[in-house]
UniProtKB/TrEMBL annotation:
The keyword rRNA-binding does not apply. This is Branched-chain amino acid ABC transporter substrate-binding protein. The keyword Lipid biosynthesis does not apply. It comes from Bradyrhizobium canariense. Residues 31-383 form the Leucine-binding protein domain. Transmembrane segments: none annotated. Residues 1-21 form the signal peptide. The lineage of its organism: Bacteria, Pseudomonadati, Pseudomonadota, Alphaproteobacteria, Hyphomicrobiales. Keywords: Signal.
Length: 399
């Protein structure tokens, strides 16, 4: 009888412990199991480095003791930017690995292919690396928060900038023929309204195409004075290089997913990229302005230790690092309640969070009705050696 009471007492103590670990997939007294899927290979492998940056941050976090004594077991798989592979990996993460939640899944096609399944399983997908505007619809995607400024917002910022600086010009848009690229095109349509057909010429490409040189040549022949590139780094680099080769002196704007020096500008040619613009949330590691900035000094020290030998100019690593900062913040806010319900609740309860590597004036705020982690950005221009920010911080709510 005494033995029986000891067992009951021990069971009661276990069940009353932090997060009710026995009832929560991926949660134990010592571990939090989290899943991610990235294009580590394939046509979008450059932005897959976001996953490498995040994994390095998790390693650093674990070296500091984890969160409230629990280590993070972050399991990441490579989908090669293929939706069928993304589905396969997400199922494995949920059903075999039994992760608590998904964090930082990257790639609009793969996220689109797996969102319905994750919702059916009740698995939150936090800080997805996609700016597809459809995911900002909280009613249809209640278990998702987004980790990029929406492509719709970003596109409208670019449209507004061009109408102010080149009001009488024609604008060319090269876009990836999927949700990513189409959102930017739709943003220009929404902003320009009845003037869209008169002012914009566009061309699309598939991620399976080896080159987009012909599209760039055709867009130049339209007489456009601006070129907006809405795609992934490989193709953005090709577009910048080809525009330079054929002598197209257009105002060039690239989208944030392609806004990496190491991932886009260097392959295109740093000299050929002079004048290229992009909207960003981040401080530039090459900018002397931030040489003694505490946040960037901490990032450089982290990079030297956990990403030794990698290219610090590739902004995808910085995006991954920032994802890690937010993951740590969310888990700390959860306290002892690591239920899926509370993890999602805290992901939607970020209040004036300042990530040390983002530009001054940019803060993270989420709520039950606002699932976008980032809603602000600032324009910057490549000088040949560094990004030079200009203008004010722009906000989704005012654009």
């Amino acid at each position: 009888m005494l033995v029986r009471w000891k067992i009951v007492a021990a069971l009661a103590l276990f069940l009353s412990g932090p997060a009710f670990a026995a009832d929560e997939p991926g949660i134990s007294a010592t571990e939090i199991k989290i899943g991610g899927v990235f294009p580590f290979s394939g046509p979008a492998s450059s932005i897959g480095l976001v996953g490498k940056g995040l994994m390095a941050y998790v390693q650093a976090l674990n070296d500091r003791g984890g969160v409230k004594g629990r280590k993070i077991n972050y399991i990441a798989y490579d989908d090669g930017y293929s939706p069928p592979k993304a589905v396969e990996h997400v199922r494995k993460l949920v059903e075999s690995d039994e992760v608590s939640f998904m964090f930082g899944q990257l790639g609009t096609p793969g996220i689109s292919a797996t969102a319905k399944y994750l919702r059916a399983k009740g698995v939150p997908s936090v800080a997805i690396v996609s700016g597809s505007s459809k995911f900002t619809d909280v009613a249809n995607y209640p278990l998702i928060t987004t980790g990029l400024v929406s492509y719709d917002t970003e596109g409208k910022i670019y449209a507004k900038y061009l109408t102010r600086t080149l009001p009488n010009a024609k604008y060319a848009i090269l876009y990836q023929n999927d949700d990513l690229g189409k959102d930017y095109l739709a943003a220009f349509k929404a902003f320009l309204g009845k003037d869209f057909d008169r002012k914009v010429v566009s061309a699309s490409y598939e991620v399976t195409e080896p080159t987009i040189d012909s599209q760039i040549t055709n867009l130049k022949s339209s007489g456009a004075e601006a070129l907006v590139i809405a795609g992934t780094p490989k193709f953005a680099a090709q577009a910048i290089r080809q525009a330079s080769v054929i002598g197209w002196k257009a105002t060039v704007i690239i989208n944030f997913p392609s806004g990496s020096v190491g991932g886009t500008l260097a392959p295109a040619g740093l000299d050929k990229s002079v004048g290229v613009m992009v909207g960003t949330t981040n401080k530039d590691v090459l900018d002397e302005t931030w040489k003694d900035d505490p946040g960037m000094r901490a990032y450089r020290a982290f990079f030297d230790k956990y990403l030794q030998g990698a290219d610090i100019t590739n902004g995808s690593y910085l995006t991954g690092y920032q994802q890690g900062v937010l993951l740590e913040q969310i888990l700390k806010q959860c306290g002892d309640d690591l239920s899926r319900k509370n993890i999602l609740a805290q992901a939607k309860n970020l209040k004036d969070v300042v990530v040390p590597t983002v530009l001054p004036g940019i803060k993270v705020n989420t709520s039950e009705t606002e699932n976008m982690i980032w809603t602000q950005m600032r324009l910057q221009r490549w000088t040949g050696t560094t990004w030079q920010a200009f203008g004010d911080v722009l906000d989704a709510r005012s654009e």
